[in-house]
Amino acid sequence: MTSSAATETGATPDTPDTPEPGDSPAPADAHPAGSDTDTGAAPGTGSGSGTGAGAVVDPFDRDILPAPRNAQLLLLRSLLRPHARRVWTAAIYLLVQQAAVQVGPLLVAYAIDHAIPAVRDGRHGALIAVACGYIGCGIASGVLQRVFIRIAARVSQDVLVDLRGRIFRHAQTLSLDFHERYTSGRLIARATSDVESIRELLNDGLDELIEVVLSGIYITALLLFLDWKLGLLTLVSYGPLYLAIRSYQGRAVEAYRRRSTAIAAVIVKFTETMNGIRPVKAFRREQPNDEAFAELNARHYRANGDAILEMARYVVWSRLIANITIAGIVLWGAYRVAGGGMALGVLAAFVLYLRRLYDPIDRLGMFLNSYQSAAASLEKIAGLLAQAPTVPEPEQPVPLPARGEGVLPGREVVFDEVRFAYRTGGEVLPTFDLRIPAGQIVAVVGATGAGKSTLAKLLARFYDPTDGRVLLDGVTLCDLGRDDLRRGVVMVTQEAFLFSGTVAENITIGRPDATREEVEAAAKAIGAHDFITALPDGYDTDVRKRGGRISAGQRQLVAFARALLADPAVLILDEATSSLDVPGEQAVQHAMDTVLRGRTAVIIAHRLSTVEIADRVLVMRAGRVIEDGTPAELIADDGHFAGLHQAWQDSLV
Ligand SMILES: Nc1ncnc2c1ncn2[C@@H]1O[C@H](COP(=O)(O)OP(=O)(O)OP(=O)(O)O)[C@@H](O)[C@H]1O
């Protein structure tokens, strides 16, 4: 991520692909019930919470993100620009190919009106020339078509690869705030079903659509050339045909937008359920989930049906218009041929051309179909790509002050008049000041919803403060470059997320250039070496494969080894509370001591045993620090912390 410090939160709250025990689809507090929208988007779209959150309407609840008006066009242009030469070459091939195709009926007219009468007079040259010309045009058009298809296929493949890459890269650069609101299911829908509908257009429809349009232009010109009166009559039919197409397009674009939104909702529900499969099982949510999924599926079915129905309507109208025109022309042409005002060959050519003109008209509906569907998808992708990170990289990064040899890694942290509100909620931190000297270990305690995680996320620069500054050794976090921020602050979250790959690779994420010796040294220091070497392939065990599965406590140890290797100035620990057995907990406690040594640390402490290793304790309530001191001072003070401590002591007895 561009914006964030190195963290364990490779799992955004609803990371879809690699659920781990303890992963939850999304923080419950961020996704209040009732945030479902007309998209059917499952919880995860976050329509407002936080202290004092009213009914704030999040624009993200709509499936289409706000974007500049011409975002779609700009995207298309930027996708095609690198291939401009090939696109023009393909266009020229197509122009010539269509010319070769459309010569056929002209040759037939010539044969009927001139070459056949000449044969009667014993002159065969013209007919042979016509036959050779016909074959020649057929071969030329076949060869040119093949070349065109090859070029078009290559361009479309390149465009799709580029588009998928852009979606992935852009989604990664977007801030946590975006991901919490947009949900991973929708992102997957953009990268899969929406890219797929563009692929369908590029691979199966676009060339034919262009061919139909191009042949329409050629044929119209030829008809006017052959007989301008009948040609004009054909032109008249374009009026109602145009109206039929326009009205179809108007209705179809809506139908396709609804369809694309509906399929996104199906994917969102699917990924959310599979990510949260453990709570689903624990609370026996299978049946309600089935029902909710069936409803979303039915909505997609209806949206799809609407789209098909629109096309059926269009086909009926366009056929009717075409048939009436052909009947009119044949009738009028026949009278004129009978009266000697028109050559029979010309009428024959006319009929052949009209068939060529109107035959693909049903398919035109189909092509317009895939065009509409692709346009709706492109609109959504363009909306996504138009989102700017809310936590941007500084244009002119400021380096952290240099430090001498042998100095401990910790740096000073200052919250300077920080105020913070989530975009979708009320203010969580009212004016907040805090100074943590370099190397101090601070434990933050407080009731749920007090703002502890928010404090940590501001320090990790997952978010920027609404007001005020967070400083690291005097440098505002917003001014720190990506590398300095990664070396500056690391956050280890409860989930201790592991990526697919080996144990060693997972530890190396802390410092990609680390050697195997350094990885092992970090694991040894943390106390993870023994269990890692006991795995089927030791450090090379794939954590997602059979035998590579490791326990929650062991995952924590790997996460600590990763953090130790990263060697950050400030370490934030969102402390693990659950699923650790006692020996596991002791191992984690020991690892924690190792990884914290010499660093500035902020621990969101749930267990008071952790608080005992802290130099200082902050007790938070409603976004404010209500008690601040060493553990001993606070216990002596007889305040909130003293009460908590007493209750804990009593529970140990
Ligand atoms: N992404 C978000 N969007 C909107 N509001 C949020 C978001 N995350 C948290 N909040 C709100 O901010 C407030 C503080 O939440 P925070 O997670 O910082 O509390 P906490 O003290 O860490 O709680 P816990 O101990 O339960 O983790 C809560 O009211 C919560 O509903």
Automatic annotation (TrEMBL):
GO terms for cellular component: plasma membrane
Listed SMART domains: AAA
Membrane-crossing segments per the record: 87-112, 124-144, 341-358
Keywords annotated in UniProt: ATP-binding, Cell membrane, Membrane, Nucleotide-binding, Transmembrane, Transmembrane helix, Transport
Record-level Gene Ontology MF annotations: ABC-type oligopeptide transporter activity; ATP binding; ATP hydrolysis activity
Alphabetical list of SUPFAM superfamilies matching this protein: ABC transporter transmembrane region, P-loop containing nucleoside triphosphate hydrolases
InterPro entries, A to Z: AAA+_ATPase (IPR003593), ABC1_TM_dom (IPR011527), ABC1_TM_sf (IPR036640), ABC_transporter-like_ATP-bd (IPR003439), ABC_transporter-like_CS (IPR017871), P-loop_NTPase (IPR027417), Type_1_exporter (IPR039421)
Region (Disordered): 1-53
Cell membrane as UniProt keyword: yes
Compositional bias ranges of the Gly residues kind: 43-53
Pfam families cross-referenced by the UniProt entry: ABC_membrane, ABC_tran
ABC transporter domain mapped to chain residues: 413-647
Biased composition (Low complexity): 1-15, 33-42
Coarse class of the protein's main subcellular location: membrane
Protein's membrane topology: Multi-pass membrane protein
Classification via CDD domains: ABC_6TM_Rv0194_D2_like
Subcellular location: Cell membrane
Residue ranges constituting the ABC transmembrane type-1 domain according to the UniProt record: 88-373
Similarity field: Belongs to the ABC transporter superfamily. Lipid exporter (TC 3.A.1.106) family.
Protein name: ATP-binding cassette, subfamily B
Organism of provenance: Actinacidiphila yanglinensis
